[in-house]
Design goal:
Number of domains: 2
Number of helices: 11
Structural class: alpha/beta
Distance between the termini: 46 Å
Largest sheet: 8 strands, parallel
Strand order of the largest sheet: 5-7-10-12-15-18-20-22
């Protein structure tokens, strides 16, 4: 398996020939080549999204759609922008990790721990590998499920991902197996999976439980301007999946992502989603509560700073009876950043006893930032209970005055209030991520809080 030592093929833009080239380079089975080409046709015919963020300056003809892995590293540490190196330093990230995050080849000490953990999972029948390896080694399972939740014609960027995907994780957890430790794609670093067009497929069989942790709060340096991933999660009866992702792309990146979970009877999905960095993000994880008594919980945090537009939210489709969902969405805006919440609840006629609640809170740190909330609620069953509440606030002057009267300086007081606002999100994270995320939020807010 290669680490992300890669170099772009010289061709830019996408063509049928490039899609075929990717498939033959990976030595894929015929069904995958056909699937990719069908997705390419869907991509050509699908319109560019005209809502959400402004994509007019994203020129797809200038993007390199496939990077071939090589054994020699093309990027040097000197090429990494200083603002990213500074952030690594301030977050206290070790040098080896810094270089790996920046895409510089570095041997990572945790490799041995990872191999031991992987061996113990495999003895329980758990499969955890890159999706590329899964296509080669577990072709029938992949063929059965890939594209079953996010079809190839779902939206233009999901079609694009389906045509050119590379990297990403594949996880299968057998019936009744509980994995106590989070499966981390490893452990923040396994650079191969964080490709430009990675695709993740997670299958949780009946009664199993797992926590998948992806990404990292330090900036992932990308020389490419587009990141377009697809995540599909299938949660069978009585299974429990928690999916945590924190993504912080460098500021040149458009982050356009499709993520969806299909939840069977008495099963439970939890989605913890943090978005930092990038010039523009469009991401709305979706939970399809298909089985009776299926449950879903989503907690998201978007941080929008200078020249950043975070267009995020969540979607729930209630289909089974007595299904239950909650979405908690938080956004922080500073230095003219834009945060928009786009969420929807759909209660299908079959969903008797559906309960759903959305809570959407934004904290504005200055006058020039902007925030919007665009909820869509479509109730097809009169038996449903649905609630939506939204709040937009700036710093509470009474609280600041109270803290000042206790001798706390204004920048520390503001930091305390920000910590209070994001606290419920940070509490959902493992300890080492929580510490780093708190530091990151403080760094992001530095411009605004002096």
């Amino acid at each position: 398996m290669h680490h992300n030592n890669s170099s772009c093929t010289h061709e830019r833009g996408i063509s049928r020939a490039i899609v075929e080239q990717i498939s033959s380079y990976k030595n894929e089975p015929e069904w995958m080549r056909v699937w990719r080409l069908a997705a390419y046709d869907a991509f050509l015919s699908a319109p560019m999204p005209t809502w959400g963020v402004d994509l007019s300056s994203l020129d797809l003809s200038q993007i390199c759609f496939y990077c071939k892995p090589f054994d020699t590293q093309v990027r040097s540490w000197d090429d990494v922008p200083s603002y990213i190196k500074d952030t690594f330093d301030k977050l206290g990230i070790p040098q080896a990790e810094q270089q790996t995050l920046a895409g510089v080849s570095a041997q990572f000490e945790s490799e041995i721990i990872y191999k031991n953990l992987k061996a113990s999972w495999e003895s329980q029948g758990v499969i955890f590998c890159s999706l590329d390896e899964a296509v080669a080694n577990y072709s029938e399972i992949v063929r059965q499920y890939i594209g079953s939740i996010v079809p190839i014609n779902d939206n233009k960027f999901a079609s694009l991902n389906s045509a050119v995907w590379s990297g990403g994780s594949f996880i299968y957890v057998p019936k009744g197996v509980s994995i106590e430790l989070p499966i981390q794609a490893y452990f923040r670093m396994h650079a191969e999976r964080m490709g430009q067009f990675e695709r993740t497929l997670i299958i949780a069989d009946q009664g199993c439980s797992l926590h998948y942790l992806e990404g990292c709060s330090a900036p992932l340096y990308s020389t490419q301007s587009l990141h377009s991933a697809v995540v599909e999660i299938i949660v069978f009866d009585k299974a429990h999946v928690r999916y945590t992702t924190i993504q912080n792309w460098s500021k040149n990146v458009y982050n356009l992502v499709t993520k969806r979970a299909f939840v069977h009877a008495n099963a439970h999905i939890e989605w913890i989603d943090g978005n930092f960095g990038s010039c523009a993000t469009m991401k709305y994880p979706c939970m399809i509560l298909h089985g009776d008594q299926a449950k879903g919980f989503m907690m998201s945090l978007a941080v929008a700073g200078c020249n950043q537009h975070q267009h995020t939210g969540g979607k729930v489709i209630h289909r089974g009876t007595n299904t239950c969902a909650a979405i908690v969405s938080k956004a922080l805006c500073s230095s003219g950043g834009i945060a928009a919440y786009a969420g929807s609840i759909i209660v299908e006629p079959s969903a008797y006893g559906a309960r759903a609640h959305i809570q959407c809170d934004t904290l504005m740190l200055d006058e020039s930032s902007r925030s919007t909330s665009c909820p869509s609620i479509n109730v097809g069953n009169p038996d449903a209970e649905v609630g939506h509440e939204a709040s937009v606030s700036s710093f509470d002057q009474h609280q600041l005055f109270y803290l000042a009267s206790r001798g706390i300086g204004s920048s520390v007081a503001r930091a305390l209030l920000i910590n209070g606002f994001v606290g419920s999100f940070v509490q959902e994270l493992p300890m080492e991520y929580a510490i780093e995320l708190n530091r990151l939020i403080m760094l992001e807010m530095d411009q605004s809080i002096g």
